[in-house]
Amino acid sequence: MKYIFVTGGVVSSLGKGLAAASIGTLLERCGLKVTLQKFDPYLNVDPGTMSPFQHGEVYVLNDGAETDLDLGHYERFVHCSLSRLNNLTSGQVFESVLRKERRGDYLGKTVQYIPHVTDEIKNRLYEVTEKSDVDIIITEIGGTVGDMEGHIFLEALRQFALEVGRDNVCFIHVTLLPYIKAAGEMKTKPTQQSVAKLREIGIQPDVIICRTEYDMSEDERRKIAMFCNVEAKNVIAFRDVKNTIYECPLDLSQDKIDRIVTRRLGLDVPAPNLADWQRYVGRVISPSHSIRIAVVGKYIALQDAYKSIYESFTHAGAENDARVEILRIDAEEIEEKGAEAMIGSVDGILVPGGFGDRGIEGKIQTVEYARTKGIPFLGICLGMQVAVIEYARHICGMDDANSTEFDQKTTHPVISLQEEQKGIKAMGATMRLGAYKALIRSGTLAHKLYGKDSVTERHRHRYEFNPAYRDELENAGLVISAVNDEHGLVEVVELPDHPFFIACQYHPEFQSAPNRAHPLFSGLVSAALEHKSHS
Length: 535
Ligand code: GLN
What we know:
Strand content: 15-25%
Low-confidence stretches: none
Bound molecules: glutamine
Oligomer: single chain
Shape: globular
């Protein structure tokens, strides 16, 4: 097994995750089998309990692991299927060490950072090695070199490289070259200092990736090489991409990072075949059509809160030869100004997932607007729940219909907790999580979009369509087009006499990728194009 470790220096938000994922894309296209993982030094056991305002989107894997959003990039950029083994946090490391200590596993020894905590980290690497059928494992280390909490991870990596042989390991350090306007030049000092910090720990990076706003000159490249003790060709420029993050692998390939890394690891492989990726990027950059889709949610001000949804629109747009312009609308603003004023001119509407009652009435107004005006609509998770509430209130006359998440006393709890959720008190990893199979009814829009009788999709929610209301809503015209294959819980609802109105309890955005657009997103984009051509 070969290993690549990606660390970050100087500042956070450098696009380390994208760099790791892009290297994965390139290596996969050299014919290698690749998997990726992330080590996050924070103390939360997983990001599932963190607010989107803190941490951005919580990305969910098939096995139900709630993970860092970088794992979303990994699955979109590389054909890998990740599991809970692929995201390790300090919280998990210490939880395990302390459990062992309480059990007496350490046989009376003093439990210490070295070797007990570092062993725990290395064990994860060995476990992933054993369980992954790949040639290379790329591991991204969250945070910035110099952070106190990341130190123990770097120490573990230093030891690990020694154990598996330094020739099987490539350390890549991603740093920033800030441009100082007044001086009119890019500065290499922060990079020198962060590499010095790494070397203090005993890690000599093999490759340095420099995030830059402007092109890096040969002088700058040589200077970084000299101060950081690497060859000049191993100093790679990683410019801000102009149009889309999917350009990142193409950008990194210009400095031949795939050649440098594979040579470093002693792998003799052909140059990457990027033809399909290039065609895909071409379709993203210059499509023939354009549409406007409103995403009406709660965490709208944050770029990262609905990351996978925005990415899914890029994939679906490319498939439909359309640029998808996204209008991010705060649901509370719909409550204040009305749907017509806020989303009157859009070609499609999406209501994403969410928690808590803020903005709920605005989302219900949004659904009503989409339903009555015939605007293509996709609801996801909470988006499906509000679609059901809206239908119950306005078509079935259940005026106070609601989810018990927002109104415990409603006389019409059309969305409610199932028995197994009722006794749960702890918040961490207790939702309905991960992949479940749904059976799709033939003759429905869902069946037409998927083109099959069953699908497996990822979940992350507590509340469900209340089965007690199923008959009444169906009799009134709501179509239930997919149900869970075991317990029959509602997975998808739709409206037959509407151009495109569909909502699902699961999260389709976690399974969309370039050249593999998700059918529900693709369907929405295609319906929005149709809607635009008529208006
Ligand atoms: N808050 C809702 C629930 O827990 C919806 C969750 C979501 O949209 N991810 O069921």
